[in-house]
Every structure is written in structure tokens, then in C-alpha cells.
Design goal:
Layout: H1 2-19, H2 27-34, H3 38-53, E1 58-62, E2 66-70, H4 75-83, H5 94-104, H6 111-118, H7 122-138, E3 142-146, E4 150-154, H8 157-171, H9 173-183, E5 191-192, E6 200-201, H10 203-215, H11 222-240, H12 249-256, H13 259-275, H14 281-293, H15 298-301, H16 311-328, H17 336-354, H18 364-370, H19 372-389, H20 395-413, E7 420-425, H21 430-443, E8 447-453, H22 455-459, E9 469-472, E10 483-485, H23 492-502, H24 514-523, E11 525-530, H25 535-548, H26 556-566, E12 570-571, E13 577-578, E14 591-605, E15 608-622, H27 631-641, H28 643-651, H29 655-663
Parallel strand pairs: 7-8, 7-9, 9-10, 11-14, 13-15
Antiparallel strand pairs: 1-2, 3-4, 5-6, 12-13, 14-15
Helix pairs in contact: 1-3, 1-4, 5-7, 5-8, 8-11, 10-13, 11-14, 13-14, 16-17, 16-19, 17-20, 18-19, 19-20, 20-21, 25-26
């Protein structure tokens, strides 16, 4: 952006000039000495203040006296830091600046104010305000504009605090990473200034959080540890500026009964004394809810497995495992670690929903794309739990459940062989780190994950000496061994880069080859525009054709019908489909039967048998025991659940047209 680049250049010139001065200088003198228009200089002053403030330095202004810089003692060091801003630490861009202003200013600026401050046209400013309004709306904050009056925000204080933390984490990522590095080392001082809040010494907050963890026998994940620290800092910032949280008395009373509230209440005086701030019961309640909603490390979660109130969540987890087991045909119900971890996750999440806290899942879109079948199972499971518990469970939670299911599947599919040694670092919860762990093992045949660590472990030098590569979901400090930053889903470019670093030539292809797909398509059963009275007749017609081709054994049809009665497979996808199937013992060759239906056929819904869906496509997989990867089936399933591809399948008039549609790579 040209305006931003010019403004940054001008600001650095002003800062360089002021650093060299030993006394206050008037705007007129600065303008004359550096050849800058005095009106432009006046407009740049808020920007310069913001730039200096972000680096613990203040621009001092006094009418009739002039301007001067107050902060670091070493002037050369100050300017060296600001020179690095040109490529590394650029200040807020215009779009973010506008959002920042709405979040932090007591009186919202007008459109004209923004035009003057940013040197932008009115249409551009209005476009950026629209973007800010959408962001705020997603955080349950309403931005309302009134002609001739200006803008006003409508919000609850707890939503505003959460929004400010999200702003910091989204737009000041590098500073958050620097804060984490500071928190996880043994420094005596940890002074930080973020754009959205005052400067704070974070060591006393770190001490408070450590005592909270100890009091509740909990160890927060790196990311949630940093978020919790920021929520306390934001709370103090808001309290200093006289913003108070209000909870209705019943909600406040319920929170005050929680043991975490009692520990927070007993520990908060240390913060109050150090910062000379008083926390009200509602503020302690907010801190309590923030702590409860934070994700914890696997090691500390395992400490509470034997708690009495854990059994009900174990039952929920077993129910989910059973449904997944019946769809994937893998022994997921035998994975006790998966069931325990899922139960603990459910316990944490359902508590959040109970207290009215919003579930956020930044990986939801990727989960839907990478693991559609796991997500469909999870979505149906959340419907069941919603009815049982009378709670509104959002799809973000379905995404997390899908991640646990996908992790269990990846784990079972893995076969141990000699591998390169890798460490995994993840600042998020165990579900994400576990998924990355098993994705790595399955994607890289010559790789062995010997360590799963936190950011804190790396900073403290706890990295195994045997490691050939560190794979991380967040940037790390300099290490002696190579490291790469990836997403938990390992896209193709990331897999390729890991193989290059480790010298791994071959890797498992996540999709079937063209030859493999064509081979199975040619021997399978494909029936367009099938006419059948009901689901039993449809299964019988397809089953007979599979048997006739020698793809299944005697008893296949009865087994599929019996299983469908017990475990329905109707899926409420954009164009509803059904996946009736049975055990490996009835299979002869890997294949499938697919039918598009002349008239829809009613199937009971997977995981929610009281509901019925009108299926338009039936896909019956015939899977063999020694082919656990099922790449062809997953490829076909993705295509059938895709609305555009499914629509084309329904329009196909013959078998050859369906083959041509299914043979094309899924994108």
C-alpha cells in the first residue's frame, strides 16, 4: 500500500531527527529541518506515537515547548530497531488500524476522522469499516452508524475483552510469539506493549497463572497459556479505564461455586497489590471462565481420568467410537487412549457450552475438507448429544470430535518400520498435536516421531539429541537441528519439503492413482437411475450384481441389510447419500456398487436413527481386510458428497458417463 509505505518513510525520518535532539523541538522547526509539510507532519503524529509506543518508547508533546522522545537510553539502539520496521515489524495497516480504533477508542472516530488520519478516500474508508463491522459481529459486537452522529459499539464487556485478545493474537502474531518466549524463560522482567492495551510487566501475571495451574492440578497448552495471560492483562487494562463486567446474579452465583473460582479468588490479591488494581467478583468470574475454557496438555488431563464425574463422558466417547468403528471397519473401540482423550475433551467443551462460552475452531474448514467422513460422523454425534443434554452444540465442536476420530483412524492405519527421527511441536491442544503426529507417521514411511513437545520445552532446551527434524505448527527460536512450520493437516507442499529435508524419496499418495481408480471402476457395479421400492430392495439389486461379478461372498446382501438396521448410514450431505456396507469377511475383491436413484429412497440417518433422509445416491463399499487405507473409497465418498459432482452424477444417463465423472481427480 503506497500511502502506508510513504507514511512509514516519513515517520522514520521524524524519529531519526528527534533521536538526535537533546531538547524539545517545535513542529515548525522539524518541518523546516527535514523538509516536510507542517500539516502532513501534524497528521502523521498519531501514527508516529503508535509506532514508538509499540517499542516501549513515547513521543512527548507539550504546547509551546515542542516534541521529544522518551524511552530507551541508547539512541542508536532505538533507531536501529525502527529501521528494521521497514521489512519486519510494519505498523498496523489501514484496515487493521480502523478495527483497532473501534476496539480501543472511547469515542469511535468518524469516517472523516479516518480519512484525515489515513489519507484515504471516503469510499475506501467505508469499505474498511464494513470489514471491521463483520469482524466485530463475529465477536458478538455490533457496530452501528448513525448519519450526522457517527459510530457506536454495542457489546458486553466479556465479549469485548475476548475480542481484544483475539485482535492481538490475529494481528500481532510476532509480538505474541516474543511474549511466549519471554514467559517460558527465566527472565526477571517481561515488559510488553501491544497496540490494543497498555504496557504491562507480565512476570507477576506469569506467577499468578503458575499458581492457578498448581492449585487446579492443570498444565495449560502453550497457546492457551499465552491467551490466558493476555486475558488477564486485557482485564487489567479495561479495569484501569473503568470498564466493568456485568453478569446476571444467577450466572455469577453458579460460577462462584466452581473450585477454579475459589482458587482464583484466593490468588488474585497478589495481582491487585502489584498493579494497584481492584478485581470485582465479576472480573474473577471472567478469569475463572477463561481458565476453564483453556485447553490443557495431555499429561495433566490424564490425572483426572479416574474422577467420579468422568464416567458419563466416557460413555459418550464410547458411543462415538462405536459409530466410527462401524463406518470405518477399524477397531477404534479398542483404542482406550482415544476414548479417554475424547471423553476429557467432551467434559471440557460441554462445560464451556454450559457456561455460555463460545467455541472457536480455526481449523474447521480444513477438517471438513480433509476428513469429510469423520466430520459427518461427528456432526451426527453432536445432534445426539444436543438432544440428550438439551444443549446447542455448534459445528465447531463437531470439527474437534472429527479431529479425534481422524486421529484414531490415522493411528490404526500406521505400521511401524524403520524411520527418520522427528519431533513435533504444537502450541495448541492435544487433539491437534496427536493428529499431526499420526499424519506424519502415515504420510512418511521412513519417519519416526520420537518426541512431542511444547514451545516451552524447546525454549528450555528439552529437545532430544536424536532428532533429525523438528516439525512445528508455530515459529520456533533458532535451533541446532532443521525445523519446519506446517499446518496440522500437512498439505502436499509441506510433505514434499519434509521429504526433501529428510531425504525421503517416496511417500504415500493421499489419493488413488488414475490406474488404480480405473481398475476398480471397471470391475465395480454402476447403475444409473435405479428404480427401487425401498432401501432393502435397492441393496438387494446392487448386492446381486456384486455377487454375479464375483466381488462378494454368499450372505453379503443379508449382512448389509442386517447391519443397516442396526447402524443406519444415511448422510444428510448437500445431496443426501447412503453408505450401506458390511464386514470384510463377505468381501472377495476391493470394489463398490453405486446407484443414482430415479426416485429418492428413505434411509435412517447415521448416528440419529429417529431421523430419516431421502437419499439420492447409494454407495456400497466392498473393502478387503488388508487394505486399511481405503484410498479409492474415500476418493469416491468425497466426490459423492460434493454438491456439484453429485448433481452431475444424478444427470448421468448411463454407466459410462458416471465412470467419466468419477475418474476425474477430486480437487
Amino acid at each position: 500500500m503506497k500511502n502506508k509505505s510513504k507514511r512509514l518513510e516519513r515517520s522514520l525520518r521524524v524519529i531519526q531527527y528527534l533521536i538526535k535532539q537533546h531538547h524539545p523541538v517545535s513542529l515548525t522547526h522539524i518541518s523546516q529541518d527535514i523538509g516536510l509539510n507542517v500539516n502532513t507532519l501534524k497528521k502523521d503524529l498519531p501514527y508516529i506515537e503508535n509506532l514508538l509506543s509499540a517499542h516501549h518508547t513515547k513521543l512527548m508533546r507539550k504546547p509551546g515547548v515542542g516534541l521529544w522522545i522518551e524511552g530507551e537510553k541508547q539512541q542508536n539502539k532505538i533507531y536501529k530497531n525502527f529501521l528494521q520496521l521497514q521489512n519486519k515489524h510494519l505498523p498496523l495497516d489501514a484496515k487493521t488500524f480502523i478495527l483497532h480504533a473501534f476496539l480501543t477508542e472511547k469515542k469511535c472516530p468518524t469516517v472523516e476522522d479516518f480519512c484525515d488520519m489515513l489519507e484515504l478516500s471516503k469510499p475506501t474508508v467505508l469499505k474498511y469499516i464494513k470489514t471491521a463491522r463483520t469482524w466485530l459481529s463475529n465477536h458478538t459486537i455490533n457496530l452501528v452508524g448513525k448519519p450526522g452522529v457517527g459510530y457506536k459499539l454495542y457489546f458486553t464487556e466479556d465479549n469485548m475483552r475476548n475480542a481484544i485478545v483475539d485482535f492481538i493474537e490475529e494481528f500481532e502474531t510476532e509480538k505474541v510469539n516474543e511474549l511466549m518466549a519471554c514467559l517460558f524463560t527465566h527472565k526477571k522482567s517481561c515488559l510488553f506493549k501491544f497496540n490494543a492495551i497498555d504496557a504491562f510487566e507480565f512476570i507477576p501475571i506469569k506467577t499468578f497463572v503458575g499458581k492457578m495451574e498448581a492449585a487446579n492440578n492443570t498444565d495449560l497448552t502453550d497457546k492457551d497459556y499465552a491467551s490466558f495471560v493476555l486475558k488477564i492483562a486485557v482485564s487489567m487494562h479495561r479495569l484501569k479505564h473503568n470498564f466493568i463486567i456485568r453478569y446476571e446474579s444467577k450466572k455469577l452465583f453458579n460460577i462462584m461455586q466452581h473450585p477454579v473460582y475459589r482458587s482464583a479468588s484466593s490468588l488474585i490479591p497478589s495481582i491487585e497489590e502489584y498493579f494497584n488494581i481492584r478485581f470485582f467478583p465479576e472480573d474473577i468470574a471472567y478469569i475463572t471462565l477463561s481458565f476453564i475454557s483453556s485447553k490443557v496438555k495431555e499429561s495433566s488431563m490424564l490425572n483426572i481420568i479416574n474422577n467420579k464425574d468422568h464416567s458419563i463422558y466416557m460413555e459418550y466417547a464410547k458411543e462415538i467410537a462405536t459409530i466410527a468403528n462401524n463406518i470405518f471397519g477399524l477397531p477404534i473401540t479398542k483404542d482406550t487412549e482415544f476414548i479417554h482423550m475424547l471423553a476429557l475433551h467432551l467434559k471440557s467443551t460441554l462445560n464451556k457450552i454450559k457456561y455460555g462460552m463460545k467455541i472457536k475452531n480455526p481449523l474447521l474448514k480444513e477438517i471438513k475438507e480433509e476428513y469429510p467422513l469423520s466430520f459427518d460422523i461427528a456432526e451426527n454425534v453432536t445432534k445426539i448429544l444436543s438432544k440428550k443434554l438439551n444443549l446447542n452444540i455448534p459445528e465447531e465442536e463437531a470439527g474437534y470430535i472429527a479431529m479425534y476420530i481422524a486421529t484414531a483412524v490415522e493411528k490404526i492405519k500406521h505400521a511401524r518400520i524403520k524411520r527418520k527421527k522427528v519431533a513435533v511441536v504444537c502450541a495448541m491442544a492435544m487433539g491437534t498435536s496427536s493428529l499431526l503426529f499420526w499424519r506424519l507417521l502415515n504420510e512418511m514411511p521412513d519417519l519416526d516421531v520420537v518426541q512431542i513437545s511444547s514451545y516451552k520445552d524447546i525454549v528450555e532446551g528439552k529437545l532430544s539429541k536424536e532428532v533429525d527434524l523438528v516439525v512445528s505448527t508455530i515459529p520456533l527460536p533458532p535451533l541446532k537441528v532443521p525445523h519446519i512450520v506446517v499446518s496440522p493437516f500437512l498439505n502436499s507442499d509441506e510433505r514434499k519439503e519434509i521429504r526433501e529435508i529428510l531425504g525421503i524419496v517416496k511417500g504415500r499418495c493421499p489419493y488413488p492413482s488414475k490406474d488404480e481408480l480405473s481398475k476398480i471402476l471397471n470391475r465395480s457395479v454402476i447403475i444409473p437411475q435405479l428404480k427401487a421400492a425401498n432401501w432393502k430392495e435397492a441393496i438387494s439389486i446392487l448386492g446381486k450384481q456384486l455377487f454375479k461379478k464375483g466381488l462378494v461372498k454368499e450372505g453379503f446382501i443379508d449382512a448389509v441389510i442386517s447391519r443397516e438396521r442396526e447402524f443406519p448410514t444415511g448422510l444428510n450431505t448437500p445431496i443426501p447419500i447412503a453408505l450401506p456396507h458390511t464386514e470384510f469377511k463377505y468381501s472377495k475383491k476391493e470394489s463398490f456398487a453405486i446407484a443414482t436413484l430415479k426416485n429418492t429412497i428413505s434411509f435412517r440417518e447415521m448416528g440419529n436413527p429417529k431421523n430419516r433422509i431421502d437419499a439420492k445416491i447409494i454407495l456400497i463399499p466392498v473393502l478387503v481386510k488388508n487394505n486399511e487405507e481405503k484410498t479409492v473409497f474415500y476418493d469416491l465418498f468425497k466426490k459423492c458428497r460434493d454438491k456439484n459432482i453429485a448433481t452431475r452424477l444424478l444427470s448421468a444417463k448411463n454407466e459410462e458417463e458416471i465412470k467419466q465423472i468419477l475418474e476425474k481427480p477430486y480437487k
